[in-house]
Amino acid sequence: MSHVRVQVEFTPLAEDDEFVLDQLTEELARDLGEIGEVERIAMTAAPDSKGVAELALGTLTVLTSVDPGYIQALVDVVAAFLRRNAGRRAHLRVGEIELTIDQPTASETAELIRTVQAAIERSQR
């Protein structure tokens, strides 16, 4: 079975602090863990920080199957996260292709699934 790594990032709200962003990132990581291997993105350390990297808040990668069922689950999980956290957007990156999700309707979710599947197919060529 083929796999693809998808970067998922959500936008913070003006009132969010690091604690809130960390909690939301963990929530999304747990949700995405149902469909693939999730990793939090580490930011590169500053030259004078003695090599300590910090985790980027709001950004994850998920290694998931390219099977259409998994892609549908990925989009559904992100859409559900956005419904629970109104006012946010999510950005998905597959290779060079980037998509933005913003409170999609059922028909928009279906279109996003097709778009993500096509992006994955293009990234594997």
Descriptive report:
This protein has helices at 18-32, 68-84, 106-123, and strands spanning 3-10, 36-42, 55-65, 90-94, 97-101. With 125 residues, it is an alpha+beta fold. It has a single domain (3-123), classed as Alpha-Beta Plaits (2-Layer Sandwich). The protein has a five-stranded antiparallel sheet with strand order 2-3-1-4-5. Helix 1 runs antiparallel to helix 2 and helix 2 (68-84) crosses helix 3 (106-123). The two termini are 16 Å apart.
Intertermini distance: 16 Å
Shape: globular
Q: List the strand order in the largest sheet.
A: 2-3-1-4-5
Which CATH class?
A: Alpha Beta
List its traits:
Alpha-Beta Plaits, 3 helices, 40% helix, 29% strand
Please give a quick description of this structure:
This protein has helices spanning 18-32, 68-84, 106-123; strands spanning 3-10, 36-42, 55-65, 90-94, 97-101. Helix content is 40%, strand content 29%.
Q: Layout of SSEs?
A:
Layout (H helix, E strand, L loop, with lengths): L2 E8 L7 H15 L3 E7 L12 E11 L2 H17 L5 E5 L2 E5 L4 H18 L2
Antiparallel strand pairs: 1-3, 1-4, 2-3, 4-5
Helix pairs in contact: 1-2, 2-3
